[in-house]
Amino acid sequence: xxxxxxxxxxxxxxxxxxxxxxxxxxxxxxxxxxxxxxxxxxxxxxxxxxxxxxxxxxxxxxxxxxxxxxxxxxxxxxxxxxxxxxxxxxxxxxxxxxxxxxxxxxxxxxxxxxxxxxxxxxxxxxxxxxxxxxxxxxxxxxxxxxxxxxxxxxxxxxxxxxxxxxxxxxxxxxxxxxxxxxxxxxxxxxxxxxxxxxxxxxxxxxxxxxxxxxxxxxxxxxxxxxxxxxxxxxxxxxxxxxxxxxxxxxxxxxxxxxxxxxxxxxxxxxxxxxxxxxxxxxxxxxxxxxxxxxxxxxxxxxxxxxxxxxxxxxxxxxxxxxxxxxxxxxxxxxxxxxxxxxxxxxxxxxxxxxxxxxxxxxxxxxxxxxxxxxxxxxxxxxxxxxxxxxxxxxxxxxxxxxxxxxxxxxxxxxxxxxxxxxxxxxxxxxxxxxxxxxxxxxxxxxxxxxxxxxxxxxxxxxxxxxxxxxxxxxxxxxxxxxx
Length: 483
Prior knowledge:
The chain is mainly α. It has a domain at 276-483. 76% of the residues lie in helices and 0% in strands. It has 19 helices and no strands. It has helices at 7-23, 29-48, 66-95, 101-123, 127-145, 151-186, 195-201, 207-225, 233-240, 243-269, 277-295, 302-323, 326-357, 368-371, 373-386, 393-408, 410-436, 451-465, 469-482. The protein is globular and about 65 Å long.
């Protein structure tokens, strides 16, 4: 069997490809924006069919299990809501002349290519195909970061391209090493690249070779995750690219790269003689968390501020998965979902704020709850949620991460809690002026669509109050897969 039997997987991949081809030919912005939303929504609906897919069948190239279903459904949902936000945001950019109709045709086509690339990486049972999917998503986001064609945007795109290429090159070398480790066991051919085969036979692999491979893979894909000190591309890409791309980068692409790390972590954990991969992930996670927490205090650009917040939270998620075990893995999955929903919602708010005020400088954005109450209070809710305060879902996931760490490794809980508290202080330090300072800047009414933002924050609030038993059971099963 070559492909997975699930037709849902095929639709999740085909819809973005076909839509990208059509969008590349459409000259009318309004029509292309609507088609982009329709395509993204259709992909999300197709992803829901994966819940009913046959998990027992795995092809050489594609497969479905509870782990990638969790990532694909989250990926397509945020991709859909971001496309709705993008329609009004990009329309404003066209009206102000920052983007031309040609740029918009390119933007919408690349949006679908990006979604297709991420979905391909998540659905791939072939580690080479997974690498191709992540590389495709990377290249499309590079092009979209530089779409404004300003000096700063092009510089950010080039930095992203260079550092991303280094990271993806390291990941490719690690992938080759995994194949070399599998070669004596499974023989030549495609089986040495099939993840389900690798996991089943990993105990027979040369432990030294897969140890070296995982280091390259963690550094390579860790660059895409935005882990310090491999993070330098991320703040610039957020600050200079269109805000919908910032939402996608923080809410989706970082998760996809982490997904690749988790797949290889499972392979390494299946070999009893290999080094424990969790220790490396815990170290990088803590470094990223504490580093980003300190860096938050000195940000002057509102999009860079929340870019460093993403580095902080990816550090927490990587730390949780590195700790491993049922509770920590469950907490990591929950935190990943809550961060994706909350951070993308924050970028929805930030995008409209920057358009209204005509600036991203924090010093020039003051008294937002007075000048634009709905937008200002939405941002306040988003910051309260992402800071990890109750009753939002991020509080629940961070509580589980901290409590499981205290129970197993009390000393590691010290830098973990320190980083979380420092980040909370930095966010509220900036929020005080942005939301409640003396009003400055434009007071023009906002024509923003609040629906995606309200939906995201509403889901995070509900998750903090009540998690459906079905969702808990599902996440527990995924946590068991991760080991």
